[in-house]
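Hey,
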Amino acid sequence: MTETLPATEAAPWPRALVELYDAERVQLLRAAYLVCGSTAMAEDAVHDALVRVSTRWDSAERPRSYLYVAVVNAARDASRHARRTQRLGRTRTHDVNPAELSLQSMALRDALARLPERQRVAVVLRFFADWDDEEIAREIGVRIATVRSLVHRGVARLREEWKR
């Protein structure tokens, strides 16, 4: 089932954004999910990011990267908000329907959730969004060598988790 963006007379969606969303929807949701660990939060993050980028879409130099950066940032914000809410004792459930995930997918999600945020974002952008080191470095505001270190350490921790 493909989901397309609703067209409205007040704020029509840029055609190029709609086409990119249609082509990348699953990957965008996957990247957001792996950053925040919740299907509901991932869907919200993708849609929030789409609304944000739609207003500046025509000025984007690299539209695909621009959209992914917005989605990852929205997922990071949602994840931080969820952690703050849990610390304050206000719990919201954004659980995934286990029937939708294989056991390996659930194990990967759980292992990714245990990584520090920067490692998790670097690993997700590298392996699930197919970004290069330079793009990741610009997104998270570090040097390219730091990205390589984050990815290396993140993958090493995931391997350790996977062995358990």
